[in-house]
TrEMBL record:
It catalyses: ATP + protein L-histidine = ADP + protein N-phospho-L-histidine. Keywords: ATP-binding, Kinase, Membrane, Nucleotide-binding, Phosphoprotein, Transferase, Transmembrane, Transmembrane helix, Two-component regulatory system. InterPro entries: HATPase_C_sf, HATPase_dom, Sensor_HK_TwoCompSys, Sig_transdc_His_kin_sub3_dim/P. This is histidine kinase. The keyword Transmembrane helix applies. It holds the Pfam family HisKA_3. It comes from Dactylosporangium salmoneum. Its EC number is 2.7.13.3. Residues 281-371 form the Histidine kinase/HSP90-like ATPase domain. The chain crosses the membrane at residues 25-44, 51-68, 80-96, 103-122, 128-148.
Length: 374
């Protein structure tokens, strides 16, 4: 509203200076400068409208008072002020529009300026000097605006590339963790198959039990592979990077809370899951999401506590990590939130993270539980 109000008042103020004011008095410079400054709000939102209004000011000044003031310094000063204002608008167009649009705009404005010089200039020497100034100033304005646009596009490209790198890094880490799970499952299957083969003649009950374990382990591993491996890219793990420890899960939340308390952050775990086991990939991802969210609280929230809620519903596992800290995004963006979002997306769930209206920050995740899970 303020921007468009300034857009309406600007021509009124400039017309008052041209028609009713006394241009020979130096204090009256304030009126045209303020009139052009009122276009700043519209320039930010509608640069072409502001640029068109500035060109109207140029024509109005030359048509009404330009002839009277051509022999004074006021005429040269006003033309210089207007040239700077027009070039600022062209630079803003170059900074916010496509290159071909800004080139056409700059060329069109330069033609209008050159036409004004030819139409209103008297002496050829003055015409040559002003034309050169217009060309040089326009080139400088366009290059400055175009450089700003290129830097902004480069920064956006770097942000997008960083996000892609974060997703890829998280996928590779998930792949290494899934590799450990699959290797364990195949080892169990191999041991049970060997034991069943040795006792199938003498102890058939034990052989049937071994086959049941093989069936359950195979189905569970196959379900995990079907949900995750199709979305992961193959990559060789770094030497020594794979851990030999068992993959963590929600059963390790108490240890996570204890470690956080040692670091000065009190983590209150509420809810929890029942005795029914979760699929390994869901269990591992849920733990990693909580771990990353608690780590962000410790690093960025500036609060001594946070609450972790874990609820298992028949169709989904719901996770919520809430704090009452500063409530902003982690400084510098970071890869934690993109990594958590990627984990949830790989499992077909929903993820949200952001400041709470009452203060603090909330991370929520809803991970579907397969229908064949216990």
């Amino acid at each position: 509203m303020l921007a468009w109000t300034g857009f309406v008042l600007s021509p009124l103020l400039f017309a008052a200076w041209v028609f009713a004011g006394d241009p020979l008095h130096m204090p009256f410079y304030v009126m045209p400068v303020v009139a052009m400054a009122l276009l700043a709000g519209v320039l930010w939102r509608r640069p072409f409208a502001a640029l068109a209004m500035l060109l109207v000011f140029v024509a109005l000044f030359e048509l009404v008072v330009g002839t009277q003031l051509r022999a004074t310094n006021i005429h040269a000063d006003m033309r210089l002020i207007q040239m700077v204002a027009v070039d600022i608008a062209v630079a803003f167009v170059a900074a916010t529009s496509r290159r071909w649009v800004s080139v056409v705009t700059a060329a069109g404005v330069l033609v209008v300026q050159a036409g004004g010089v030819v139409a209103f200039q008297i002496r050829p020497a003055d015409m040559q000097g002003w034309a050169l100034q217009y060309v040089l100033a326009m080139l400088a304005a366009w290059f400055i605006g175009n450089s700003v646009r290129q830097r902004r596009e480069f920064a956006q490209a770097r942000i997008a590339e960083s996000a892609r790198a974060a997703v890829q890094q998280e996928r590779l880490r998930i792949a290494r963790e899934l590799h450990d799970m699959v290797a364990h499952s195949i080892g169990v299957i191999a041991m049970q198959a060997g034991m069943g083969r040795r006792v199938i003649d003498k102890r058939p009950d034990e052989a049937r039990q071994a086959l049941a374990v093989i069936e359950d382990t195979g189905r569970e591993t196959l379900a995990s592979l079907r949900r995750m491996l199709g979305t992961l890219r193959r990559a060789e793990p770094e030497p020594g990077a794979a851990s030999l420890d068992p993959a963590p899960g929600l059963a390790d939340l108490d240890r996570l809370a204890a470690r956080s308390r040692d670091a000065g952050l009190h983590v209150e775990v509420r809810g929890g899951v029942d005795e029914r086991p979760l699929p390994p990939d869901v269990d591992l991802s849920a733990y990693r999401i909580i771990q990353e969210a608690v780590t962000n609280v410790a690093r960025h929230a500036g609060t001594p506590r946070c609450d972790v809620l874990v609820e298992r519903h028949p169709e989904a596992l719901v996770i919520e990590v809430v704090d009452d800290g500063r409530g902003g995004e982690p400084a510098g963006g970071g890869y934690g939130i993109p990594g958590m979002r990627e984990r949830v997306a790989l499992l077909g769930g929903d993820f949200a993270a952001g400041p709470r209206p009452e203060g603090g920050f909330r991370v929520t995740a809803r991970i579907p539980i397969p229908a064949d899970a216990p």
